[in-house]
Amino acid sequence: MVIKILNKIGRVRTKMLILFFITSSLLCYSQEYPEFLEYKKMGYSIAPVTTRPAQFNPTIGDIKVTGSWTPSLSFGLNWTAHADREVSFRYGLHFNILPIYDFKYELPDGDLPNSTNFFSNDRNWGPLYISVPLQVELKKQLGPRLYASAMGGVNIAWIPEGSVEVGASVLVEELNEVREFFELRSQTREFPLYPNLRLSLGLYFMWDKLLLQTNVVYQKSIPNYFTGEYLFDNLEISDRTEGTYSYRGDYIGLEFVFFLKKRKQRKTKKKEKTLKNVYIN
After folding, report:
1. Residue 56, Cβ neighbours under 10 Å: how many?
2. Domain presence at residue 162
3. What CATH number has the domain bearing residue 140?
4. Do 229 and 177 meet the contact criterion of CB atoms below 8 Å apart?
């Protein structure tokens, strides 16, 4: 058992060394773009994104629940290391709006008292969460002020432990009671760090006072952001329905990154003082 673990550690170490040497070689022999040094290393980004629908997997019953694509927003700060090189590094601090649920379902006539063709579309967002993207970037010049960009890496999100509960009920006037017929419960995991794979393709547009980068960005989460279960019960016609629920952090969107141009330093001329010697005869 110990030998197997040591072999695995050795293989991982070998892969890391190979990756290190490949990256070092790219940095040493990559083409240089000194014009990028005219702009600040820190840029401001904003990205409207749409998040992948949640998954509802029934284990009992026939009521269908469908997740929906959810609009969201990410914004923050980005820094570039070795911006003048063909291969550079990008890291940042992003703030993201957290979608916590977005789904819809329909119940047949007669399932709820005094209701026909009941339809529900529930959507909600949570607080902001922080993420740290770490990416490698490859640039290629397409024109005098136009460059192509491809980036890949990870985006590590920090989401505190928490839970979400959603319910639906109806008033039964004949019995003068409130009857709950739907419930969804989900929660995040205890460990607050969520690694995500992040890829983007885009273009740089270079102007006198601004460097604009536009990217189509895709994120693939490794663990689920939320997992839980849902339940339909106390209905007049439909049987009890229950199942599992999962909500990932996958999204696709359009990102805009703005780099301002550096201010030119003013050169101050030093005034030389001349000393005159006065001779008194």
Report:
1. 21
2. yes
3. 2.40.160
4. no
Q: How many residues does the chain have?
A: 281
- Is residue 8 pLDDT above 70, yes or no? no
Report DSSP letters for 74-102, one per residue.
EEEEEEEESTTBSEEEEEEEEEEEEEEEE
Q: What is the pLDDT of residues 44-87, one digit of tens each?
A: 999 999 999 999 999 999 999 999 999 999 999 999 999 999 99
Do 109 and 16 share a structural domain?
no
Is residue 30 within 8 Å of 83, Cβ to Cβ?
A: no
Structure tokens at 27: 């940095």
Q: Please give the backbone phi and psi of residue 127, each rounded to the nearest 5 degrees, phi first.
A: -75, 175
Mean local confidence (pLDDT), 256-279:
65
Cα angle 149-153-156, degrees, rounded to a multiple of 5: 130
Q: Are 56 and 92 in contact (CB under 8 A)?
A: no
What is the rounded distance in angstroms from the CA atom of residue 29 to the CA atom of residue 87? 9
101: in domain = yes
Output the pTM of the full model.
0.79
Cβ atoms 182, 219 nearer than 8 A: no
Q: Is the pLDDT of residue 249 over 60?
A: yes
Q: What's the rounded Cα separation, in Å, for the pair 228 and 76?
A: 31
In this structure, what DSSP letter does residue 261 have? B
